[in-house]
Amino acid sequence: MSEKKYSTGLVLSGGGTRGFAHLGVIQALNEAGIFPDVISGTSAGALIGVLYADGYSPLEILDITSMGSRLDFMRPTLPREGLLQIGGVAKMLKSNLRATTFEELRIPLFVAATDMNNGRPHYFSKGELINPVIASSSIPVLFQPVVIDNICYLDGGILDNMPVAPVENLCSFLIGSYVNPVSYVEKISGLINIAERAFMLRMSEEINEKSDKFDLLIAPQELKNYKILDPEKAHELYTLGYKATRENLEKIDLKKIVFNNLPALP
What we know:
Elements: E1 6-12, H1 20-31, E2 38-42, H2 44-53, H3 58-65, H4 70-73, E3 75-76, E4 84-85, H5 87-96, E5 109-115, E6 120-124, H6 130-136, E7 146-148, E8 151-155, E9 171-177, H7 191-204, H8 206-210, E10 216-218, H9 234-249
Parallel strand pairs: 1-2, 1-9, 2-5, 9-10
Antiparallel strand pairs: 3-4, 5-6, 5-8, 7-8
């Protein structure tokens, strides 16, 4: 059996502001002595992934990304290409990222976006950093597309919400963090709510197809009670991700991936 390029890979799904749960997942992994040496992310997973790959701790990222209200990340725009502008995310990245290219990141990163011209997923891993991350996070209808090298890109979750493809054959141990469970909704009204629900349903299909690709999959079902555009719940979402990861780590043999012991639950 050939040796893998990376020891531990981490795949982070999309899911809007439910992505704050990714931070709790990473925090619990780090406390257990598990530090991914390659990351692949879509949408919210790309945002969390790029900041972590840039050297920020999960708690530092929580502070950076949860400081504002929903309006800090989304400004209304004329409904020609998108109902909202994602300028707040761009401002946050430009203000905090130390790396300007993928090559400058401390951890290799793959960012999934949807190539709308050719109708296929695209995985960015080289060159300029911020625009691919913004493109990966641009939910269709809600946000305007991002044009890179004359190609129109939107949220990676359209075609690949759990971007395991770039790393599945490169890692000895592969961890997935999935934050997009769906549940029954009694009433759906308003254009933004309808667009949000349609996008969530599309993204939720993939986990059934890809779950067996992971050695460890964290997928907190409680996240179904949270909207995908609700940054005010950041700390609650972080806690859900943290607790779910600690519970999952207790069920596996950590010696497969680390040699130090898991701290006792408080």
